[in-house]
Every structure is written in C-alpha cells, then in structure tokens.
Amino acid sequence: MNEQTTIERILKECQTIAVVGISSNPMRPSNSVSAYMQEAGYKIIPVNPRESLVLGERAFASLSDLPEKPDLVNVFRRSEDAGAVVDEAIETGAKAVWLQQGIVDEAAGKRAQEAGLLVVMDRCLMVEHHRMPR
Questions:
Q1: Burial degree of 11 (CB within 10 A; 0-12, 13-18, 19+)
Q2: Cα first-last separation, the chain
Q3: pTM of the model as a whole
C-alpha cells in the first residue's frame, strides 16, 4: 500500500486519536494540530504525564492507562523516544501510528507494520487532513 493510500485509510477509519506528547500550551504544534482534528470531528485523548486536562479532555499518563482503545496513536515525541511509544501502541491494539513531521523511527515503523498497524512517519496529520478531498 502506498503512503497516500495509508494516509487516506487512517483519516477515514481512525476516529479516536490518542495524542502522545500533547501540550496544553496552544502555541505548541501538538495542541494546535489536536485542536484542528477535534474541530474536524475526531475524538482526542491526551497522553502526557505532565498534563491533567487538554482541549477539554482528561489527560492520561500513558497509552496503557487509557480507558478505551484508540484507533490512532499520534506521536509528538522525539524520534529517539518514538520506538517505545510505537511498541505501546502495538500492545494497546491501536489500528495505526502516526509520527508527526520531523519524527522518524524506521525500526519502530517496521515493528508496527509487522503487527498489522498502518504507519505514517514524518508527516503532519493536520496538513494531510486539510489536503483530503471533501
């Protein structure tokens, strides 16, 4: 499956998005991208041990603490930290992982694909959603 097809599938099939590394600071990309996706109708679940409430939603310390299984895990962490998040996404049964623009971990992406997850790296979820035909 090519990358564009993967992006389209994620945007159509994944309605619940766990955002790892989200910040309550509206100036941070994690916040603005998540706010955009929330306004577009997606359910956002904040994941950050330093936050309690983000975008009106309760924040959780880790993916394993979530009360429900997310469809998509959107990662706003450094590339060197992304692998552990991807492994946790696999364990939680997510359908897909998305490493935001500037974040790449080929080994983690391969593990996720081998586990049956859709994978996108080094792309902005908001930009790709905005490009989608309506």
A1: buried
A2: 22
A3: 0.97
